[in-house]
Each structure stands twice: as C-alpha cells, then as structure tokens.
Design a protein that fits this description.
The complex is a heterodimer of chains A (about 375) and B (about 160).
Chain A (H helix, E strand, L loop, with lengths): L8 H16 L9 H7 L1 H11 L1 E2 L1 H10 L4 H12 L4 E7 L6 E6 L10 E2 L39 H7 L29 H9 L3 H12 L8 E16 L4 E20 L7 E10 L3 H13 L16 H7 L2 H9 L6 H27 L1
Antiparallel strand pairs in A: 3-5, 5-6, 6-7
Helix pairs in contact in A: 2-3, 2-4, 3-4, 3-5, 4-5, 7-9, 8-9
Chain B lengths: L13 H13 L2 H11 L5 E17 L6 E16 L4 E7 L3 H13 L6 H28 L2 E2 L10
Antiparallel strand pairs in B: 1-2, 2-3
Helix pairs in contact in B: 1-3, 1-4, 2-3, 2-4
Classes of the chains: A alpha+beta (about 375), B alpha+beta (about 160).
Amino acid sequence: MYVAVKGGEAAIANAHRLLASERRGDPAVPEISPDQIREQLSLAVDRVMSEGSLYDRDLAALAIKQARGDMIEAIFLVRAFRTTLPRFGYAAPLDTAAMQIRRRISATYKDLPGGQLLGPTFDYTHRLIDPALAGDETAVPAPLRAQIVSTELVPHVTGLLDGEGLIERNAPRADGLPAGDLTREALEFPADRDLRLQCLSRGDEGFLLGMAYSTQRGFGRTHPFAGEIRMGEVEVELFAEEAGFAIPLGEITVTEFETVNQFTGSESAPPQFTRGYGLVFGHCERKAMSMALVDRALRADELGEESGAPAQDQEFVLSHCDNVAATGFVEHLKLPHYVDFQAELGLIRKLRREHTARHVKEAAE
Amino acid sequence: MSASHPAAVGVSSSAERRHVMAVCAHATLAELADGIAAVAPDLAATVVRPPELGLVMLRGRAGGDGAPFNLGEATVARAAVRLSSGEMGLGYVLGRSLEKARLAAIVDALAQVPAHRPALQRALIEPVEARRLRERSVTAAETAATKVDFFTLVRGED
C-alpha cells in the first residue's frame, strides 16, 4: 500500500530542471520543433493520437517533444489534456466507404474494383539502413503521378462477398440504444462489441500485436485473411442543436482493416465467412490489423466457438490493453512504500525468530 | 435563429450553410481572414459565444457499415457571432484554433446576407474549393501511380 509522503520539494524541482536539460540534449544540436515532429515523425504522432484517443496532430507532436520521445508518456500527456476540456457532443459515424483513399490493398482478390493501391508503405522495402538520410538535407524526388481512371467511390472488398451472401452481415444495433462510451462509464464484463471496439482502438499497439500474434500461433485460432486495408481521409460531421443540422468539421486520417475469417453456420443457416474489424486514428496499420484479429478472437462466444485462449478472454484483453492504466499501476511501485515495507520487515523478522525458536526446540528434543 | 428574426429573409437553406461551413473547415486561417477582408472590410461582428475549445467524440461503425461505436475524441474549436445586420453565424472546426472558429462563424453569418454572397463566392469559396480539388487530384494521382498488379505464379512440380 502506498502512504503519502511530504517534503522533497527542492529535490523534485531540481530533478525536473535536470529533466528539461536532458530533454534538450546537446545545445550545439538545433532544437526540434513540434512542426518537424508532426511532419517528419508522423507515424509516431499517429500512434500518440490513436492510443491517447484524441485526434490532434499538433498536440500529439508537442506531447512527443515534451516526453522526450517516450510514447507512453506522450500518450499519458494527451489523455490528461483531454480531461481539461468540455465535450461538445458525439459526431456522426465516419463513412469509410467515402474515404479519399491513399492506400488500399486486399490479400483475398488479386483484381478488384478500385484496384490495389500500395500508397506510402514500408512493405517491399529491404529494411536496409539508408546512410544517405544521415547526411545533409537531400532533395526527395517528387512522387510520380498517374492518370486517375475513376473518381467513383471504392467499394469495400467484403461487400463483394456480401453480394453472394458468403459473409456475415454487419448487424445494425438491435436495441436502438446509443453506443456505450467507456470514457463515461467504467467497463463491465461481458462488454458488448461497441465497447470492445472502443477499448481496442485506444489500446496499446504492442499488447494488441502480441495478442493478435498469439491467435495466429494457435491460441484461439481464427484463420484470418486480410480482406481489406484502407487508409486515407474521411469527413467528420457533428449535429449541432443551435444549427439544427450536421456541421462539417473537417477531415481526419484513419486506417481501417477488415478480416475475412473462417466459418460460422448452423443446421438452419448455411456456412458463411465471419469478420473482424479494426479502425484506428492516423496511419497505424499494424495496430488496425492487430485490433481486427483481436476483435474477431473476442467474438468466440458469440459465434459459438471453442474459447479459453488469452486473446478470447474479454476481461484479460480489455482490462490490460490500456497502456496508461497499465503504466500507472506498474510504475506506482516506484513511489515511496516505506511504511508498507517496514511492516513487511517486521513480519519477516518475526517469522525468522519463530523459525529459529522451532529449530532450537527440535534440536533440544 | 427564429423565423421572425429581421434577417430571416436572407437566411440560407441548411444545405447552403453546410456547404459554406465545409469550405471554412478546409480553409486555412489566412484564406478565411483574406476572404472576409475582401468581402466586408469594415465588418462589425458581435461575439455571441466567445470562442472555446472542446472535444467531440468521433464514431465508427463495426465492419464499416454496422452498429456504431465510439472511436475516440478530437479537439474542436467553436464560436458564435452576430452581424450588426442581425445574421447569426456559427463556427465549428477541428483543431484548437479559436481564431479559425471565430472567422468561420463570421463567414457563416456573411454567407446568409444575399448581398455578400457573390463576393464571398469569388473571394473565399471558389479559391478554397479550387485549392482543395487540386490537392485531392494530386493525392489521387500519386496514389494511382502505386497501383499494383501482382501475378500469381504457378507452383513447380516439387
């Protein structure tokens, strides 16, 4: 148990001053600006927005600078910031079918309407360190442009399967209630899929990646195909009472991933593919994929599958995927536990005295 | 805004207001400021609601088109102004620029004055839309250049 302590103000102030100096690093090296972080470490910014559960590129960039690049610390800063602001309302659900697509691939169909668009990807790079990036600033060749064949909306790949009835439908909400919000009410188990998706979307990438990997290695196998991954910009709209209509607020970048998994079916219903879903702020592809695999694993009970693997255990996954909660509890161990430890010391000394007394007595007999 | 308001004659339809608001949301601070300066250089707008920061909870749908879920929040700045002629304007924009929200509110109000509409169209709406269209076309063309055609290879006998 942690017991509050007093004092230490001067040392704490000095430590924070030292921290600021460490953050700055060698003064001979130019200071980095949040603009540079936003533009050149954009995937770090995306991760902080996604796990901080707050879309604001400039704020995330500033948090990364302040946190010296410690991502979980930056996410913590963003989460703390959001508690200082009022909530204006709930936006209309994003229409990912209307996305301005910057990347879109499917591992299920080679030829599909709208095409396979690689976009800005690390895929197919050789993962060799590029010494040229360490030198003076070099001009980056402008991206090539190709003729735009069609400006029509690009349909979701799973829609193609749905047309034949080969994949389960995404059911609308049956009870007509609004989606649950875990920032308003504490999570209770079993949690419905809306709350699970909210929790996973802000969950730790590393944790979800490990969980997703475990399902592939046999702990709750669901055999996923990458139905579709798409990344790009979508419009945000908020219904404002004072206007009486939905106000367009601007656009955000999201990554969406949908899996096509093995079958469900019953005596009455023919076999169908099933789905797992991932949707994440920014360009966070690994996270969106992990989310979808874990989402699908967490549907084991609903789909009547054998369960018991860690990734299929709601309480295990959802209670431990939040890195701000996790770091709070793990890191609190660093705070003074002197009183607690004194009690433990007293106890172990007593146990040792009793142990010795028993041995002396046995030896005498 | 009530229908009995003196300015109600000039009130645009909600579709028109949404269109102007979408342009404002995508405009830069400079584009908004320059546009307003060009249309109404001696503008007198009263602040009805001081610009303020807040959050909007964004939503997605399971599978893209299924039941809604709460995805995460975004920062939003908002403001409300009234012109001396009575039109009330609302500004709601993603991000933390209070000034952008204030300017967006002014544009919403100005756009409801029929006399200002043509100038606003020329000075702000058309240039912003043209820039957006250009940028989106470039993005689409750059993305199209990464369109890939994979060949499926036939496996060998062993």
